[in-house]
Design brief:
Blueprint (H helix, E strand, L loop, with lengths): L24 H37 L5 E5 H6 L9 E5 L2 E6 L2 E5 L4 E6 L3
Antiparallel strand pairs: 1-5, 2-3, 3-4, 4-5
The structure holds zinc ion.
Length: 119
């Protein structure tokens, strides 16, 4: 026996065409709106974390300086999230983790070099 198909939005049983997913336009719209809202919340949180990471790096680098040597704990103490970066680039054999236009690479296990990267 086939399971009765249900509306993805209100979970009411569906009638009519086999490929139907929603009762009507209202259900289709509210389903897509809530899906988009969740997706937007997710991207907003990630963007926020990336922006905070960039701010922390910029504060350490300060205005005109293009590089700064710091300890890994310094970044952690300021709430830096190491899992969040925008891309990885290579320069003179070093793997640089970038957060937008700023990056870092490991000098030693606990020692980090902050650099500004040209995009
Ligand atoms: Zn419905």
């Amino acid at each position: 026996m086939k399971k009765p198909r249900k509306c993805l939005n209100c979970k009411e049983p569906l009638q009519g065409r086999v490929d139907k997913k929603f009762c009507d336009d209202y259900c289709r719209n509210s389903y897509h709106n809530s899906t988009m809202r969740e997706r937007n919340n997710c991207t907003r949180n990630i963007i926020h974390t990336l922006q905070r990471n960039r701010k922390i790096m910029a504060d350490f680098l300060q205005e005109k300086s293009t590089s700064a040597k710091i300890m890994r704990e310094d970044l952690l103490n300021h709430g830096f999230h190491f899992g969040y970066f925008t891309h990885i680039t290579k320069k003179s054999g070093k793997q640089i983790y970038c957060v937008f236009d700023l990056g870092y690479y490991y000098k030693k296990e606990n020692e980090i070099m902050l650099v500004s990267v040209s995009l």
